Amino acid sequence: MRPASPKQKPQPAPTGSLTRKRIKPRPIATFDMEIQAYDRGLKQIAGIDEAGRGPWAGPVVAAAVILTPDAIPNGIADSKALDEIAREALFAKIQQCADIGIGIASVERIDRDNILAATMWAMGEAVSALKTGPCLALVDGNRAPPLACPARTIIKGDATCLSIAAASIIAKVTRDRLMRDLARSYPAYGFEKHKGYGTPQHQLALARHGITPHHRRSFKPIRARLDDKSETPD
After folding, report:
1. CB neighbours of residue 214 within 10 Å
2. How far is it, in rounded angstroms, from Cα 134 to Cα 115?
3. Is 26 exposed, middle or buried (0-12, 13-18, 19+ CB in 10 A)?
4. Nearest to 6 by CA among 80, 71, 66
5. Per-residue b/e over 187-201, b at no fewer than 16 CB within 10 Å?
6. CA distance 172 to 158
7. What does the pLDDT look like over 49-94, one tens digit per residue?
8. What is the 3-class SS of 4-57, one letter each residue?
């Protein structure tokens, strides 16, 4: 039987006295792409997304999620559109009702292979960690890793496709937790706040305390600090 597409509540429009500039409504993630695949006889559809390609420190984390059509939690959306409390709550709900796989590419792999290759590797690991091999993978962005199943890339898929949005939540929460753990070992850097991104706080910490083993030496701001100041990593 063809599963019904879950209904997601629309996000409320911003309020205020904005009279000149029209507010573009935020896309609502739907199950339509998965339904189209079901109609072609494909029953196990995995959404894939990553978190942490841009930061200067920490791993990149990928997640693959196969949702159960009749047990999809309400409120799933692009992780960037949710606050931390909502992400954590949805993380727990998705874990209870979906098949989840996670892949983590270390800083060493990022520096050795480059961030794109490390991300593709992590996505492949996430799919391999699923309990059931998918018939189709829906991948956020314009590149897909080599997989045993067909893959479809979807630009801004985390905002429009429920399975990818679910994967974005799993990847984001998993990585944020790793960065909070890292902050306990390196409290001066504020990893629990900026999650490794190049914020002013992070830049100041680097200037004061130098580079840790968890910084990505292949990234230009970190490489420049090593080259220009001849810093020895902690």
Report:
1. 22
2. 25
3. middle
4. 71
5. eebbbbebbbbbeee
6. 12
7. 999 999 999 999 999 999 999 999 999 999 999 999 999 999 999 9
8. CCCCCCCCCCCCCCCCCCCCCCCCCCECHHHHHHHHCCCCCEEEEEEECCCCCE
Phi and psi dihedrals of 105, rounded to 5?
A: -100, 125
Contact predicate 186/211, CB 8 Å: no
| 26 residue type, one letter | R
Rounded distance, CA 155 to CA 174, Å?
22
- Spatial distance between the Cα atoms of 176 and 172, rounded to a whole number of angstroms: 6
Residue carrying the six token digits 């996670």: 102
Average pLDDT over residues 114-124: 98
In terms of DSSP bridges, do strands 136-140 and 60-66 run parallel, antiparallel, or are they unpaired?
A: unpaired
pLDDT in tens, 125-169: 999 999 999 999 999 999 999 999 999 999 999 999 999 999 999
Assess contact for 29 and 159: CB atoms under 8 A: yes
CA distance 173 to 65: 14
Q: Name the H helices within 65-199.
A: 84-97, 107-113, 115-128, 157-160, 162-185, 191-194
- Tokens 């944020």 correspond to 176
Q: Which pair of structure tokens corresponds to residue 174? A: 């998993």
172's tokens: 């984001």
